[in-house]
Specification:
Strand order of the largest sheet: 1-4-3-2
Shape: globular
Helix content: 25-40%
Radius of gyration: 15 Å
Number of domains: 1
Largest sheet: 4 strands, mixed
Number of helices: 4
Order of helices and strands: EHHHEEEH
Number of strands: 4
Strand content: 25-35%
């Protein structure tokens, strides 16, 4: 499960990526970070149209959250806008931290939405 969308502009960013950049590994890292992030934090970013950052290889994906609905199917995911090296990131541009142990994660949120869909 990769709850991320990565447009061509982020894949072919004018920012020089390291030659050994492994796009698949970077996307899995970002997807896992998104799944482990606090649902409350991410949904707050979506509601207030705030940017958030996900770790991706030797840098960060600059993301916006997407909330959508198709019929009775509700979905939430991260849309990557671009990729920054760690050196390019400003002090406030830090990746989403993992949720606390008792908090609902985005992974929980996505799975609950999927269960509601299959249980109907």
């Amino acid at each position: 499960m990769l709850p991320n969308e990565l447009p061509w502009c982020a894949r072919s960013s004018p920012t020089p990526q390291p030659r050994a950049a492994d796009l698949k590994a970077a996307l899995f890292e970002a997807g896992l970070a998104f799944a482990h992030a606090s649902a409350e934090t991410v949904m707050g970013c979506i509601r207030h149209d705030r940017t958030f950052y996900l770790p991706a290889g030797a840098g960060l994906l600059v993301c916006s959250g997407v909330h959508g609905q198709l019929g009775d199917l509700v979905f939430d995911y991260a849309r990557a806008r671009t990729w920054l090296t760690h050196a390019m990131a400003r002090p406030g541009q830090t990746p989403l931290p993992p949720a606390d142990d008792d908090a609902e994660t985005m992974g929980d949120h996505i799975l609950m939405a999927a269960r509601r869909r299959t249980l109907r």
